[in-house]
Amino acid sequence: MFKGILIEKDEAGYRAAVQDIDPAALPAGDVTVQVAYSTLNYKDGLAISGKSPVVRRFPMVPGIDLAGSVIESSHPDVKVGDAVVLNGWGVGESHWGGLAQRARLNGDWLVPLPAAFSPAQAMAIGTAGYTAMLCVLALERHGLTPDRGPVIVTGAAGGVGSVAVAVLAKLGYRVTAVTGRPQEADYLRQLGATEVLARTDFSSPGKPLAKERWAGAVDTVGSHTLANVCAQMSYRGIVTACGLAGGMDLPASVAPFILRGVTLAGIDSVMCPRPERLQAWQRLATDLDLTKLSLITHDIGLTDAIPTATALLAGQVRGRVVVDVNR
Ligand code: NDP
Q1: Which residues are CB-neighbours of 183 under 8 A, at least 6 positions away?
Q2: Distance of CA 156 from the midpoint of ligand 1 (Å)
Q3: From atom 30 of ligand 1, which residue's Cα is the shortest distance away?
Q4: Segment (H or E) for 200
Q5: Does the predicted TM-score (pTM) go above 0.90?
Q6: Which label site among 38, 48, 262, 302 has the fewest CB atoms less than 10 Å from its CB?
Q7: Probe target for ligand 1 pocket from 160, 229, 270, 320, with the most ligand atoms within 8 Å of CB
Q8: Distance of alpha carbon 182 from its chain centroid, rounded?
Q9: What confidence category does residue 225 fall into, taking pLDDT thresholds of 50, 70 and 90?
Q10: How far apart are the first and last CA of the chain?
């Protein structure tokens, strides 16, 4: 038996609890992983709490990412003993995920653990950090460079936001962090933000076009915040949209796109093709200051993951939460 969080939904309702799980119940897959660490991402919060219909099959082990070592494999490129990382591919949504001591997966989904990271550090980065790097890669593909002007990061004290601030600052950008938690201003400055603005400056309906302020943007919030960021972009600026922490809607106008040539780039980490995943992890190894990770991260055990999920959705968790599934 191994320990894991199991989400069940039946006549008794929607519930998540740590349980002893029979390995025979693991889903089909060509690789079995002994999980060392998983994490709590926003999506895991939604899955564990049942606040949004993220889980598509029951019972479900949540956890959209994991780091661990391979204990069984019939995949030609994955060997027993390999240290691996997994992000997305529907794991923790439609396929049992990382918030358990064991996972059975499709070997094509696995990325080798970069030599620069321990399993715990890889999960301190986790899906949030890998998504932040996908945003940075999209900004760069558009041709953004630090001399073009400042970059704004919304939901900055969250997981994606924290890593985005740290990476962009290390790359030499002037970074403006937007947060609803003024008490985290010092934290955001320690990560490298040069300016910290209040969430309320962005969260109400604004004008279709506003003063040009940003050359690039990483938005984790959506809704009015994303609309206002688009309206404040400089000529030919680039906005990467990856999140919906403030809402799924986008009450915007086309003005920034047709009058200022602004680009809105969508970022998806779940089905992102493998070459870009490998590139993102490689870039994290060089462009994230690992000394910042201890500032961004705190560790919890498997049982703590359930109450922490609620706190995360309430916007009370700073940075990243690493889950030691063996604690
Ligand atoms: P976190 O919960 O760690 O961070 C979200 C942050 O958003 C909070 O810390 C808070 O930042 C801000 N926030 C929360 N509620 C609101 C609100 N009502 N209005 C405005 N801001 C709010 O989540 P993650 O960093 O893990 O994820 C961020 C978003 O990105 C989520 O929506 C998630 O679903 C999405 N995501 C998307 C991925 C993709 O593939 N596209 C992959 C990973 C995440 P602060 O306190 O600083 O204001």
Answers
A1: none
A2: 8
A3: 243
A4: none
A5: yes
A6: 302
A7: 160
A8: 22
A9: very high
A10: 15
How far does residue 244's CA lie from ligand 1's centre (Å)? 7
- Give residue 313 CA to ligand 1 midpoint distance, Å: 9
**For residue 59, cis peptide bond before it (omega within 30 degrees of 0):** yes
Average the pLDDT over 206-211 and give the result: 98
Q: Which of left, alpha, beta for 265 (phi over 0: left; psi -120 to 50: alpha)?
A: beta
- Write the pLDDT tens digit of every residue in 237-292: 999 999 999 999 999 999 999 999 999 999 999 999 999 999 999 999 999 999 99
C-beta of residue 296 within 8 angstroms of C-beta of residue 303: no
Q: Is the pLDDT of residue 201 over 90?
A: yes
Give residue 298 CA to ligand 1 midpoint distance, Å. Answer: 17
Report which ligand 1 atom has the smallest distance to the Cα of 269.
40
pLDDT at 44: 96
Rounded Cα–Cα distance for residues 162 and 183 (Å): 14
pLDDT for the residue 41: 93
Using a 6 Å cutoff on CB, does residue 86 contact ligand 1?
no
Distance of CA 244 to the CA centre of its chain: 12
Q: What is the pLDDT of residues 232-244, one digit of tens each?
A: 999 999 999 999 9
User: pLDDT at position 315, please?
Assistant: 87
Q: Is the CB of 228 under 6 A from ligand 1?
A: no
**CA–CA dist 23, 31 (Å, integer):** 13
